[in-house]
Specification:
The complex is a heterodimer of chains A (286) and B (266). With 286 residues, chain A is an all-alpha fold. In chain A, 74% of the residues lie in helices and 1% in strands. A two-stranded antiparallel ribbon of chain A has the order 1-2. The chains are: A mainly alpha (286), B mainly alpha (266).
Amino acid sequence: MSVETRQSFGIVRMPAGFGGLLPALILIALFFVIPVLALLLRSVTEPAPGLQNYATLLYDGTYARVFFNTFLVAAVVTAVTVLVAFPVAWMLAIMPSALASIVFGVIILSMWTNLLTRTYAWMVLLQRTGVINRTLIALGIVDQPLPLINNLTGVTIGMVYIMLPFMILPLVGTLRAIDPMTLRAAALCGASPFQAFRRILLPLSLPGIAAGGLMVFVMSLGYFVTPALLGGTSNMMLAEMIAQMIQSLLNWGLGSAAAFILLVVTIALYALQLRLVGPRRMSGGN
Amino acid sequence: MLLDYDRMGWLKIALLGFTALVAAFLLLPVVFIVLLSFGSSRWLAFPPPGWTLKWYQELFADPSWLEAALTSARIATMSAILAVVIGLLASFALVRGQFRGREILRGLLLTPMVLPVVVFAIAIYAFFLRMGLGGTTIGFVIAHTVLALPFAIIPIATALEGFDKSIEDAAIVCGASPLEAKLRITLPSIRIGIFSAAIFAFLASWDEVVVAIFMASPTLQTLPVKIWGSLRSDLSPVIAAASSLLVGLTLALMVVTALLRRKFQR
Protein backbone atom coordinates (compact mmCIF):
# COMPACT_ATOMS: atom_id res chain seq x y z
CA MET A 1 0.00 0.00 0.00
CA SER A 2 2.66 2.47 0.94
CA VAL A 3 5.19 3.95 -1.42
CA GLU A 4 8.02 3.32 1.00
CA THR A 5 7.92 -0.46 0.93
CA ARG A 6 8.13 -2.78 -2.02
CA GLN A 7 5.81 -5.66 -1.53
CA SER A 8 6.27 -9.14 -2.84
CA PHE A 9 3.60 -11.74 -3.25
CA GLY A 10 5.48 -15.02 -3.52
CA ILE A 11 7.77 -14.67 -6.47
CA VAL A 12 5.76 -11.98 -8.24
CA ARG A 13 7.22 -8.58 -7.45
CA MET A 14 4.70 -5.80 -7.55
CA PRO A 15 5.45 -2.19 -8.36
CA ALA A 16 5.46 0.21 -5.43
CA GLY A 17 2.04 1.23 -4.21
CA PHE A 18 0.13 -1.25 -6.33
CA GLY A 19 -1.19 -3.50 -3.56
CA GLY A 20 -4.01 -1.19 -2.53
CA LEU A 21 -5.59 -1.60 -5.93
CA LEU A 22 -5.94 -5.37 -5.57
CA PRO A 23 -9.32 -5.52 -3.76
CA ALA A 24 -10.85 -3.06 -6.21
CA LEU A 25 -9.39 -4.83 -9.24
CA ILE A 26 -10.56 -8.24 -8.02
CA LEU A 27 -14.06 -6.88 -7.40
CA ILE A 28 -14.27 -5.23 -10.82
CA ALA A 29 -12.70 -8.14 -12.70
CA LEU A 30 -14.82 -10.82 -11.06
CA PHE A 31 -18.17 -9.03 -10.86
CA PHE A 32 -18.01 -6.57 -13.73
CA VAL A 33 -15.58 -7.53 -16.50
CA ILE A 34 -16.24 -11.29 -16.46
CA PRO A 35 -20.08 -11.04 -16.34
CA VAL A 36 -20.07 -8.48 -19.17
CA LEU A 37 -17.74 -10.65 -21.29
CA ALA A 38 -19.90 -13.71 -20.55
CA LEU A 39 -22.90 -11.75 -21.78
CA LEU A 40 -21.06 -10.85 -24.97
CA LEU A 41 -20.33 -14.54 -25.48
CA ARG A 42 -24.01 -15.39 -25.17
CA SER A 43 -24.86 -12.93 -27.94
CA VAL A 44 -22.86 -15.00 -30.44
CA THR A 45 -23.67 -18.49 -29.11
CA GLU A 46 -27.40 -18.45 -28.36
CA PRO A 47 -29.50 -19.97 -29.78
CA ALA A 48 -26.79 -21.14 -32.21
CA PRO A 49 -23.18 -20.01 -32.81
CA GLY A 50 -22.95 -17.15 -35.27
CA LEU A 51 -23.82 -13.52 -35.79
CA GLN A 52 -27.52 -14.07 -36.58
CA ASN A 53 -28.63 -12.07 -33.49
CA TYR A 54 -26.80 -9.01 -34.74
CA ALA A 55 -28.19 -9.53 -38.24
CA THR A 56 -31.73 -9.68 -36.84
CA LEU A 57 -31.22 -6.48 -34.84
CA LEU A 58 -29.75 -4.53 -37.72
CA TYR A 59 -32.03 -5.68 -40.54
CA ASP A 60 -35.41 -6.14 -38.85
CA GLY A 61 -37.42 -2.94 -39.13
CA THR A 62 -38.93 -3.17 -35.61
CA TYR A 63 -35.51 -3.09 -33.97
CA ALA A 64 -34.15 -0.47 -36.36
CA ARG A 65 -37.04 1.74 -35.22
CA VAL A 66 -36.02 1.34 -31.58
CA PHE A 67 -32.42 2.28 -32.41
CA PHE A 68 -33.57 5.31 -34.39
CA ASN A 69 -35.92 6.35 -31.61
CA THR A 70 -33.21 5.99 -28.97
CA PHE A 71 -30.81 8.24 -30.87
CA LEU A 72 -33.59 10.72 -31.61
CA VAL A 73 -34.61 11.02 -27.94
CA ALA A 74 -30.98 11.29 -26.79
CA ALA A 75 -30.27 14.01 -29.39
CA VAL A 76 -33.40 16.02 -28.54
CA VAL A 77 -32.75 15.72 -24.79
CA THR A 78 -29.12 16.79 -25.23
CA ALA A 79 -30.01 19.80 -27.39
CA VAL A 80 -32.72 21.04 -25.00
CA THR A 81 -30.52 20.43 -21.95
CA VAL A 82 -27.63 22.44 -23.43
CA LEU A 83 -29.91 25.34 -24.40
CA VAL A 84 -31.53 25.50 -20.96
CA ALA A 85 -28.36 24.86 -18.96
CA PHE A 86 -26.13 27.45 -20.61
CA PRO A 87 -27.87 30.66 -19.40
CA VAL A 88 -28.27 29.19 -15.91
CA ALA A 89 -24.60 28.20 -15.71
CA TRP A 90 -23.64 31.63 -17.04
CA MET A 91 -25.56 33.38 -14.26
CA LEU A 92 -24.33 30.95 -11.60
CA ALA A 93 -20.75 31.67 -12.62
CA ILE A 94 -21.00 35.41 -11.99
CA MET A 95 -23.90 35.79 -9.54
CA PRO A 96 -23.25 36.98 -5.93
CA SER A 97 -22.41 33.86 -3.94
CA ALA A 98 -25.36 34.14 -1.52
CA LEU A 99 -27.82 34.04 -4.42
CA ALA A 100 -25.83 31.35 -6.23
CA SER A 101 -25.85 29.07 -3.19
CA ILE A 102 -29.66 29.12 -3.18
CA VAL A 103 -29.76 28.01 -6.83
CA PHE A 104 -27.06 25.39 -6.17
CA GLY A 105 -29.16 24.15 -3.23
CA VAL A 106 -32.17 23.69 -5.51
CA ILE A 107 -30.03 21.86 -8.09
CA ILE A 108 -28.55 19.51 -5.47
CA LEU A 109 -31.98 18.84 -3.93
CA SER A 110 -33.39 17.92 -7.33
CA MET A 111 -30.36 15.77 -8.18
CA TRP A 112 -30.31 13.89 -4.86
CA THR A 113 -34.03 13.24 -4.72
CA ASN A 114 -34.89 9.64 -5.49
CA LEU A 115 -35.13 9.07 -9.24
CA LEU A 116 -38.45 7.24 -9.03
CA THR A 117 -39.89 10.02 -6.86
CA ARG A 118 -39.07 12.62 -9.51
CA THR A 119 -40.40 10.46 -12.31
CA TYR A 120 -43.58 9.71 -10.34
CA ALA A 121 -44.14 13.45 -9.86
CA TRP A 122 -43.85 14.01 -13.61
CA MET A 123 -46.23 11.13 -14.31
CA VAL A 124 -48.88 12.83 -12.18
CA LEU A 125 -48.10 16.36 -13.38
CA LEU A 126 -48.25 15.44 -17.07
CA GLN A 127 -51.40 13.30 -16.97
CA ARG A 128 -54.38 14.20 -19.18
CA THR A 129 -56.14 15.51 -16.09
CA GLY A 130 -52.92 16.67 -14.44
CA VAL A 131 -52.07 20.09 -13.08
CA ILE A 132 -50.28 21.27 -16.22
CA ASN A 133 -53.15 20.47 -18.57
CA ARG A 134 -55.72 21.95 -16.17
CA THR A 135 -53.69 25.14 -15.81
CA LEU A 136 -53.30 25.48 -19.58
CA ILE A 137 -57.03 25.01 -20.07
CA ALA A 138 -57.93 27.40 -17.24
CA LEU A 139 -55.67 30.04 -18.78
CA GLY A 140 -57.39 29.52 -22.11
CA ILE A 141 -54.13 28.60 -23.87
CA VAL A 142 -55.57 25.28 -25.10
CA ASP A 143 -59.10 23.92 -25.05
CA GLN A 144 -58.26 20.21 -25.24
CA PRO A 145 -55.81 18.51 -22.84
CA LEU A 146 -52.42 18.13 -24.56
CA PRO A 147 -50.98 14.62 -24.86
CA LEU A 148 -47.94 15.19 -22.61
CA ILE A 149 -47.26 11.65 -21.44
CA ASN A 150 -46.64 8.26 -23.05
CA ASN A 151 -44.94 10.00 -25.95
CA LEU A 152 -41.75 11.81 -26.94
CA THR A 153 -42.83 15.03 -25.17
CA GLY A 154 -43.15 13.25 -21.83
CA VAL A 155 -39.80 11.49 -22.17
CA THR A 156 -38.07 14.72 -23.18
CA ILE A 157 -39.47 16.71 -20.23
CA GLY A 158 -38.62 13.96 -17.74
CA MET A 159 -35.14 13.34 -19.14
CA VAL A 160 -34.19 17.03 -19.45
CA TYR A 161 -35.24 17.41 -15.82
CA ILE A 162 -32.85 14.65 -14.78
CA MET A 163 -29.96 15.69 -17.02
CA LEU A 164 -29.93 19.45 -16.28
CA PRO A 165 -27.73 19.24 -13.14
CA PHE A 166 -25.17 17.13 -15.04
CA MET A 167 -24.89 19.88 -17.66
CA ILE A 168 -25.15 22.96 -15.41
CA LEU A 169 -22.57 21.98 -12.78
CA PRO A 170 -19.59 21.30 -15.11
CA LEU A 171 -20.49 24.31 -17.30
CA VAL A 172 -20.27 26.63 -14.29
CA GLY A 173 -16.66 25.50 -13.90
CA THR A 174 -15.90 26.20 -17.55
CA LEU A 175 -17.50 29.65 -17.45
CA ARG A 176 -15.80 30.59 -14.20
CA ALA A 177 -12.44 29.81 -15.76
CA ILE A 178 -12.97 32.41 -18.49
CA ASP A 179 -11.17 35.68 -17.75
CA PRO A 180 -13.73 38.55 -17.73
CA MET A 181 -10.95 40.80 -19.07
CA THR A 182 -11.20 39.14 -22.49
CA LEU A 183 -14.80 40.33 -22.74
CA ARG A 184 -13.97 43.79 -21.43
CA ALA A 185 -11.28 43.99 -24.08
CA ALA A 186 -13.81 43.00 -26.75
CA ALA A 187 -16.19 45.72 -25.57
CA LEU A 188 -13.38 48.29 -25.55
CA CYS A 189 -12.52 47.32 -29.11
CA GLY A 190 -16.09 48.10 -30.10
CA ALA A 191 -17.70 44.66 -30.15
CA SER A 192 -21.45 44.64 -29.55
CA PRO A 193 -22.68 42.33 -26.77
CA PHE A 194 -23.95 39.92 -29.42
CA GLN A 195 -20.59 39.88 -31.22
CA ALA A 196 -18.76 39.40 -27.91
CA PHE A 197 -21.05 36.47 -27.10
CA ARG A 198 -20.70 34.81 -30.49
CA ARG A 199 -16.99 35.36 -31.01
CA ILE A 200 -15.62 35.12 -27.47
CA LEU A 201 -17.91 33.74 -24.76
CA LEU A 202 -19.40 30.93 -26.83
CA PRO A 203 -16.12 29.67 -28.38
CA LEU A 204 -14.40 29.76 -24.97
CA SER A 205 -17.16 27.72 -23.35
CA LEU A 206 -17.41 25.27 -26.24
CA PRO A 207 -15.13 22.60 -24.66
CA GLY A 208 -17.39 22.55 -21.60
CA ILE A 209 -20.55 22.42 -23.73
CA ALA A 210 -19.13 19.60 -25.85
CA ALA A 211 -17.99 17.55 -22.85
CA GLY A 212 -21.21 18.05 -20.90
CA GLY A 213 -23.36 17.49 -23.98
CA LEU A 214 -21.57 14.24 -24.80
CA MET A 215 -22.05 13.05 -21.23
CA VAL A 216 -25.77 13.84 -21.34
CA PHE A 217 -26.08 12.14 -24.74
CA VAL A 218 -24.32 8.98 -23.53
CA MET A 219 -26.37 8.84 -20.34
CA SER A 220 -29.60 9.36 -22.28
CA LEU A 221 -28.81 6.58 -24.77
CA GLY A 222 -28.78 3.92 -22.07
CA TYR A 223 -31.44 5.36 -19.76
CA PHE A 224 -34.06 2.92 -18.60
CA VAL A 225 -36.35 4.16 -15.84
CA THR A 226 -37.69 7.49 -17.11
CA PRO A 227 -38.36 6.45 -20.75
CA ALA A 228 -40.04 3.26 -19.51
CA LEU A 229 -42.41 5.23 -17.27
CA LEU A 230 -43.00 8.42 -19.27
CA GLY A 231 -42.70 7.07 -22.82
CA GLY A 232 -45.27 5.21 -24.84
CA THR A 233 -45.16 1.71 -26.29
CA SER A 234 -44.77 3.10 -29.81
CA ASN A 235 -41.52 4.88 -29.01
CA MET A 236 -39.67 2.42 -26.83
CA MET A 237 -35.98 3.06 -26.19
CA LEU A 238 -33.09 0.62 -26.35
CA ALA A 239 -32.59 0.02 -22.61
CA GLU A 240 -36.25 -0.84 -22.11
CA MET A 241 -36.17 -3.18 -25.11
CA ILE A 242 -33.11 -4.99 -23.70
CA ALA A 243 -34.79 -5.39 -20.31
CA GLN A 244 -37.94 -6.72 -21.97
CA MET A 245 -36.05 -9.19 -24.15
CA ILE A 246 -34.41 -10.68 -21.06
CA GLN A 247 -37.16 -10.38 -18.46
CA SER A 248 -40.34 -11.09 -20.40
CA LEU A 249 -39.21 -12.86 -23.56
CA LEU A 250 -36.23 -14.70 -22.04
CA ASN A 251 -34.46 -14.19 -25.36
CA TRP A 252 -30.92 -14.05 -23.99
CA GLY A 253 -29.18 -14.17 -27.36
CA LEU A 254 -30.98 -11.17 -28.85
CA GLY A 255 -31.01 -9.25 -25.56
CA SER A 256 -27.25 -9.66 -25.06
CA ALA A 257 -26.57 -8.63 -28.66
CA ALA A 258 -28.62 -5.45 -28.19
CA ALA A 259 -26.83 -4.81 -24.88
CA PHE A 260 -23.49 -5.24 -26.60
CA ILE A 261 -24.37 -2.74 -29.33
CA LEU A 262 -25.35 -0.23 -26.63
CA LEU A 263 -22.07 -0.98 -24.83
CA VAL A 264 -19.92 -0.40 -27.93
CA VAL A 265 -21.65 2.89 -28.81
CA THR A 266 -21.28 4.09 -25.21
CA ILE A 267 -17.59 3.18 -25.01
CA ALA A 268 -16.88 4.90 -28.36
CA LEU A 269 -18.57 8.12 -27.22
CA TYR A 270 -16.92 7.90 -23.80
CA ALA A 271 -13.51 7.59 -25.48
CA LEU A 272 -14.33 10.67 -27.54
CA GLN A 273 -15.20 12.53 -24.36
CA LEU A 274 -11.93 11.50 -22.68
CA ARG A 275 -10.18 12.99 -25.71
CA LEU A 276 -12.05 16.23 -25.18
CA VAL A 277 -11.54 16.65 -21.44
CA GLY A 278 -8.77 14.28 -20.45
CA PRO A 279 -9.12 11.58 -17.79
CA ARG A 280 -7.89 13.83 -14.98
CA ARG A 281 -10.62 16.36 -15.26
CA MET A 282 -13.24 13.67 -15.77
CA SER A 283 -12.47 12.04 -12.46
CA GLY A 284 -11.62 15.10 -10.42
CA GLY A 285 -14.18 17.52 -11.74
CA ASN A 286 -17.36 16.09 -10.32
CA MET B 1 -19.15 43.13 -20.39
CA LEU B 2 -20.83 39.74 -20.58
CA LEU B 3 -19.10 38.42 -17.46
CA ASP B 4 -19.47 41.57 -15.32
CA TYR B 5 -22.47 40.92 -13.13
CA ASP B 6 -22.91 44.59 -12.22
CA ARG B 7 -22.62 45.95 -15.74
CA MET B 8 -24.88 43.71 -17.78
CA GLY B 9 -28.04 45.81 -17.74
CA TRP B 10 -31.20 44.34 -19.24
CA LEU B 11 -29.41 41.15 -20.23
CA LYS B 12 -28.82 40.38 -16.55
CA ILE B 13 -32.52 40.81 -15.77
CA ALA B 14 -33.49 38.48 -18.62
CA LEU B 15 -30.94 35.82 -17.66
CA LEU B 16 -31.83 36.04 -13.96
CA GLY B 17 -35.49 35.63 -14.85
CA PHE B 18 -34.65 32.56 -16.92
CA THR B 19 -32.52 31.14 -14.09
CA ALA B 20 -35.41 31.65 -11.65
CA LEU B 21 -37.74 29.79 -14.06
CA VAL B 22 -35.32 26.86 -14.34
CA ALA B 23 -34.92 26.76 -10.56
CA ALA B 24 -38.72 26.66 -10.25
CA PHE B 25 -38.82 23.84 -12.84
CA LEU B 26 -36.24 21.88 -10.81
CA LEU B 27 -38.13 22.48 -7.57
CA LEU B 28 -41.64 21.84 -8.97
CA PRO B 29 -41.84 17.99 -8.80
CA VAL B 30 -40.24 17.87 -5.35
CA VAL B 31 -42.63 20.40 -3.81
CA PHE B 32 -45.57 18.99 -5.74
CA ILE B 33 -45.06 15.45 -4.46
CA VAL B 34 -44.93 16.63 -0.84
CA LEU B 35 -48.16 18.65 -1.22
CA LEU B 36 -49.82 15.78 -3.05
CA SER B 37 -49.06 13.34 -0.22
CA PHE B 38 -51.23 15.43 2.13
CA GLY B 39 -54.08 15.80 -0.39
CA SER B 40 -57.29 13.90 0.25
CA SER B 41 -58.06 12.89 -3.36
CA ARG B 42 -57.40 9.26 -4.24
CA TRP B 43 -57.30 10.28 -7.91
CA LEU B 44 -54.55 12.81 -7.23
CA ALA B 45 -56.68 15.86 -8.03
CA PHE B 46 -54.72 19.04 -7.52
CA PRO B 47 -55.22 21.38 -5.76
CA PRO B 48 -56.70 18.74 -3.44
CA PRO B 49 -60.26 19.08 -2.11
CA GLY B 50 -58.95 18.70 1.45
CA TRP B 51 -55.91 17.76 3.50
CA THR B 52 -55.32 14.44 5.20
CA LEU B 53 -52.72 12.14 6.76
CA LYS B 54 -54.44 8.95 5.65
CA TRP B 55 -51.86 8.05 2.96
CA TYR B 56 -49.18 8.07 5.62
CA GLN B 57 -51.39 5.88 7.82
CA GLU B 58 -51.89 3.48 4.93
CA LEU B 59 -48.14 3.49 4.27
CA PHE B 60 -47.27 2.62 7.85
CA ALA B 61 -50.10 0.09 8.13
CA ASP B 62 -48.62 -1.94 5.26
CA PRO B 63 -45.58 -3.79 6.64
CA SER B 64 -44.18 -4.47 3.15
CA TRP B 65 -43.19 -0.78 2.76
CA LEU B 66 -41.25 -0.72 6.02
CA GLU B 67 -39.67 -4.05 5.19
CA ALA B 68 -38.54 -2.78 1.77
CA ALA B 69 -37.08 0.37 3.37
CA LEU B 70 -35.17 -1.70 5.94
CA THR B 71 -33.87 -4.01 3.21
CA SER B 72 -32.68 -0.98 1.22
CA ALA B 73 -31.03 0.56 4.28
CA ARG B 74 -29.25 -2.72 5.10
CA ILE B 75 -27.97 -3.26 1.55
CA ALA B 76 -26.98 0.40 1.08
CA THR B 77 -25.08 0.50 4.40
CA MET B 78 -23.12 -2.65 3.62
CA SER B 79 -22.39 -1.54 0.05
CA ALA B 80 -21.28 1.91 1.22
CA ILE B 81 -18.91 0.50 3.86
CA LEU B 82 -17.38 -1.93 1.37
CA ALA B 83 -17.10 0.70 -1.37
CA VAL B 84 -15.44 3.22 0.97
CA VAL B 85 -12.89 0.71 2.35
CA ILE B 86 -12.02 -0.71 -1.09
CA GLY B 87 -12.11 2.78 -2.61
CA LEU B 88 -9.81 4.19 0.09
CA LEU B 89 -7.17 1.51 -0.55
CA ALA B 90 -7.51 1.99 -4.30
CA SER B 91 -7.28 5.79 -4.02
CA PHE B 92 -3.94 5.62 -2.17
CA ALA B 93 -2.60 3.43 -4.97
CA LEU B 94 -4.06 5.60 -7.73
CA VAL B 95 -2.83 8.89 -6.28
CA ARG B 96 0.54 7.87 -4.86
CA GLY B 97 1.50 4.67 -6.66
CA GLN B 98 4.35 4.76 -9.13
CA PHE B 99 3.55 2.24 -11.78
CA ARG B 100 2.68 2.28 -15.43
CA GLY B 101 -0.92 2.20 -16.60
CA ARG B 102 -2.22 4.08 -13.56
CA GLU B 103 -4.58 6.20 -15.65
CA ILE B 104 -5.91 3.15 -17.48
CA LEU B 105 -6.59 1.37 -14.18
CA ARG B 106 -8.32 4.48 -12.85
CA GLY B 107 -10.47 4.50 -15.96
CA LEU B 108 -11.28 0.81 -15.53
CA LEU B 109 -12.38 1.30 -11.90
CA LEU B 110 -14.60 4.25 -12.88
CA THR B 111 -16.23 2.41 -15.81
CA PRO B 112 -19.26 1.08 -13.86
CA MET B 113 -20.34 4.71 -13.44
CA VAL B 114 -20.44 5.52 -17.15
CA LEU B 115 -21.64 2.31 -18.75
CA PRO B 116 -25.41 1.91 -19.11
CA VAL B 117 -26.70 0.27 -15.93
CA VAL B 118 -29.04 -1.97 -17.90
CA VAL B 119 -26.05 -3.75 -19.51
CA PHE B 120 -24.45 -4.40 -16.13
CA ALA B 121 -27.83 -5.38 -14.70
CA ILE B 122 -28.48 -8.21 -17.15
CA ALA B 123 -24.81 -9.30 -17.08
CA ILE B 124 -24.68 -9.62 -13.29
CA TYR B 125 -28.20 -11.11 -13.24
CA ALA B 126 -27.12 -13.91 -15.59
CA PHE B 127 -23.87 -14.41 -13.67
CA PHE B 128 -25.58 -14.61 -10.26
CA LEU B 129 -28.26 -16.96 -11.60
CA ARG B 130 -25.49 -19.43 -12.43
CA MET B 131 -23.72 -18.93 -9.12
CA GLY B 132 -26.93 -19.23 -7.10
CA LEU B 133 -26.64 -15.67 -5.80
CA GLY B 134 -29.74 -14.33 -7.56
CA GLY B 135 -32.21 -12.73 -5.16
CA THR B 136 -29.80 -12.87 -2.21
CA THR B 137 -28.59 -10.05 0.02
CA ILE B 138 -24.96 -10.94 -0.78
CA GLY B 139 -25.68 -10.68 -4.50
CA PHE B 140 -27.33 -7.30 -4.03
CA VAL B 141 -24.43 -6.01 -1.92
CA ILE B 142 -21.79 -7.17 -4.42
CA ALA B 143 -23.61 -5.64 -7.40
CA HIS B 144 -24.24 -2.37 -5.59
CA THR B 145 -20.64 -2.18 -4.34
CA VAL B 146 -19.45 -2.38 -7.97
CA LEU B 147 -21.78 0.50 -8.86
CA ALA B 148 -20.90 2.52 -5.75
CA LEU B 149 -17.12 2.14 -6.05
CA PRO B 150 -16.57 5.01 -8.54
CA PHE B 151 -18.64 7.31 -6.33
CA ALA B 152 -16.33 6.43 -3.42
CA ILE B 153 -13.05 6.68 -5.35
CA ILE B 154 -13.67 10.11 -6.93
CA PRO B 155 -14.08 12.19 -3.72
CA ILE B 156 -11.41 10.27 -1.79
CA ALA B 157 -8.85 10.51 -4.60
CA THR B 158 -9.62 14.21 -5.03
CA ALA B 159 -9.14 14.83 -1.29
CA LEU B 160 -5.93 12.81 -1.29
CA GLU B 161 -4.55 14.77 -4.25
CA GLY B 162 -5.10 17.94 -2.26
CA PHE B 163 -3.32 16.60 0.83
CA ASP B 164 0.35 17.46 1.24
CA LYS B 165 2.16 14.15 1.71
CA SER B 166 5.13 15.81 3.43
CA ILE B 167 2.96 16.17 6.56
CA GLU B 168 2.60 12.40 6.67
CA ASP B 169 6.36 12.01 6.09
CA ALA B 170 7.03 14.45 8.93
CA ALA B 171 5.04 12.22 11.29
CA ILE B 172 7.17 9.25 10.19
CA VAL B 173 10.37 11.23 10.75
CA CYS B 174 9.08 12.02 14.25
CA GLY B 175 8.83 8.30 14.98
CA ALA B 176 5.36 7.23 13.83
CA SER B 177 5.09 4.00 11.86
CA PRO B 178 3.86 4.43 8.25
CA LEU B 179 0.53 2.88 9.17
CA GLU B 180 0.18 5.04 12.27
CA ALA B 181 0.96 8.17 10.25
CA LYS B 182 -1.74 7.25 7.74
CA LEU B 183 -4.34 6.50 10.39
CA ARG B 184 -3.64 9.49 12.61
CA ILE B 185 -2.54 12.18 10.15
CA THR B 186 -3.70 11.42 6.62
CA LEU B 187 -7.14 9.91 7.20
CA PRO B 188 -8.32 12.73 9.50
CA SER B 189 -7.09 15.26 6.93
CA ILE B 190 -9.07 13.73 4.07
CA ARG B 191 -12.13 12.95 6.20
CA ILE B 192 -14.32 15.29 4.15
CA GLY B 193 -13.55 13.20 1.05
CA ILE B 194 -14.24 9.99 2.94
CA PHE B 195 -17.47 11.40 4.28
CA SER B 196 -18.66 12.50 0.82
CA ALA B 197 -17.68 9.08 -0.49
CA ALA B 198 -19.83 7.39 2.15
CA ILE B 199 -22.88 9.54 1.31
CA PHE B 200 -22.54 9.14 -2.46
CA ALA B 201 -21.92 5.38 -2.19
CA PHE B 202 -24.92 5.00 0.10
CA LEU B 203 -27.16 6.95 -2.27
CA ALA B 204 -25.84 5.02 -5.28
CA SER B 205 -27.22 1.84 -3.71
CA TRP B 206 -30.26 3.29 -1.92
CA ASP B 207 -31.63 4.87 -5.14
CA GLU B 208 -30.59 2.11 -7.52
CA VAL B 209 -33.52 0.79 -9.58
CA VAL B 210 -32.34 -1.16 -12.62
CA VAL B 211 -30.07 -3.82 -11.10
CA ALA B 212 -32.53 -4.11 -8.22
CA ILE B 213 -35.44 -4.88 -10.55
CA PHE B 214 -33.51 -7.82 -11.99
CA MET B 215 -32.04 -9.02 -8.69
CA ALA B 216 -35.18 -8.76 -6.57
CA SER B 217 -37.14 -11.83 -5.55
CA PRO B 218 -40.62 -11.97 -4.00
CA THR B 219 -38.97 -12.24 -0.59
CA LEU B 220 -36.23 -9.68 -1.12
CA GLN B 221 -37.37 -6.27 -2.36
CA THR B 222 -35.61 -2.95 -1.98
CA LEU B 223 -37.59 0.27 -1.67
CA PRO B 224 -37.07 1.34 -5.33
CA VAL B 225 -38.34 -2.08 -6.48
CA LYS B 226 -41.41 -1.69 -4.28
CA ILE B 227 -42.08 1.82 -5.68
CA TRP B 228 -41.45 0.60 -9.25
CA GLY B 229 -43.99 -2.19 -8.81
CA SER B 230 -46.60 0.21 -7.40
CA LEU B 231 -45.96 2.74 -10.17
CA ARG B 232 -46.59 0.16 -12.86
CA SER B 233 -49.92 -0.88 -11.35
CA ASP B 234 -51.45 2.44 -10.28
CA LEU B 235 -50.52 5.98 -9.24
CA SER B 236 -51.72 5.60 -5.65
CA PRO B 237 -51.16 8.58 -3.30
CA VAL B 238 -49.43 6.13 -0.93
CA ILE B 239 -46.45 6.37 -3.30
CA ALA B 240 -46.56 10.15 -2.81
CA ALA B 241 -46.38 9.63 0.96
CA ALA B 242 -43.40 7.26 0.61
CA SER B 243 -41.78 9.67 -1.86
CA SER B 244 -42.21 12.62 0.52
CA LEU B 245 -40.42 10.71 3.24
CA LEU B 246 -37.58 10.14 0.77
CA VAL B 247 -37.51 13.88 0.01
CA GLY B 248 -37.27 14.49 3.76
CA LEU B 249 -34.34 12.08 3.93
CA THR B 250 -32.59 13.90 1.05
CA LEU B 251 -33.06 17.25 2.80
CA ALA B 252 -31.70 15.81 6.05
CA LEU B 253 -28.63 14.46 4.20
CA MET B 254 -28.06 17.86 2.57
CA VAL B 255 -28.25 19.66 5.91
CA VAL B 256 -25.90 17.17 7.58
CA THR B 257 -23.45 17.49 4.67
CA ALA B 258 -23.50 21.28 4.80
CA LEU B 259 -23.03 21.35 8.58
CA LEU B 260 -20.17 18.84 8.54
CA ARG B 261 -18.49 20.64 5.66
CA ARG B 262 -18.59 23.85 7.65
CA LYS B 263 -17.24 22.09 10.73
CA PHE B 264 -14.45 20.32 8.83
CA GLN B 265 -13.33 23.42 7.03
CA ARG B 266 -12.86 25.48 10.15
